[in-house]
């Protein structure tokens, strides 16, 4: 596997815990987006980016500055996988939509890890493109029993491209 880092934005700790779980399974470091630098981006060929969804489908607040760091460092030649945390019951109309903002921000990179919406319960999500989530969508609040299985399947799917 080429140099890889997991970068997350988390307000309540849920997305951080998921990021750390993914990083541990891959044997890589997890970095809070508030600590993101151009050097971290430049020193890694693969970026796994995670955000929670807030408000009316926005990515986690710290990501707005993080996106500027990503763009400033440049994503040409980088492979990017996305994951998002959401609440399919209380916010089923914007479930994991924060991922869509990250997806748009990393345009030009090699984006991997789209996930079928099969087996998910939600009303709408901006993170669905051509019938698939642009990355791994997780609801660790209402569907905690599916989190580990979904992470394992996703890692299995993307690992060959990292």
Automatic annotation (TrEMBL):
Family that this chain belongs to: Belongs to the flavodoxin family.
Purpose of the protein: Low-potential electron donor to a number of redox enzymes.
GO molecular function: electron transfer activity; FMN binding
Hydrolase as UniProt keyword: no
UniProt keywords, alphabetically: Electron transport, Flavoprotein, FMN, Transport
Name assigned to this protein: Flavodoxin
Pfam family, one: Flavodoxin_1
Organism: Hoylesella buccalis ATCC 35310
Domain Flavodoxin-like: 4-159
InterPro entries: Flavdoxin-like (IPR001094), Flavodoxin (IPR050619), Flavodoxin/NO_synth (IPR008254), Flavodoxin_lc (IPR010086), Flavoprotein-like_sf (IPR029039)
């Amino acid at each position: 596997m080429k140099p890889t880092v997991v970068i997350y934005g988390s307000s309540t700790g849920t997305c951080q815990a998921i990021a750390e779980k993914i990083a541990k399974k891959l044997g890589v470091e997890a970095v809070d987006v508030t600590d993101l630098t151009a050097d971290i981006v430049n020193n890694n060929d693969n970026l796994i980016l995670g955000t929670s969804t807030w408000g009316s489908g926005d990515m986690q607040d710290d990501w707005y500055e993080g996106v500027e760091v990503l763009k400033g460092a440049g994503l040409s030649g980088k492979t990017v996988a996305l994951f998002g945390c959401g609440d399919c019951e209380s916010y089923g109309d914007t479930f994991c939509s924060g991922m869509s903002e990250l997806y748009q921000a990393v345009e030009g990179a090699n984006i991997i890890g789209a996930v079928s919406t099969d087996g998910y319960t939600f009303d709408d999500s901006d993170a669905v493109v051509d019938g698939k989530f642009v990355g791994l969508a997780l609801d660790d609040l209402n569907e905690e029993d599916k989190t580990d299985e979904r992470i394992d399947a996703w890692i299995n799917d993307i690992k060959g491209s990292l």
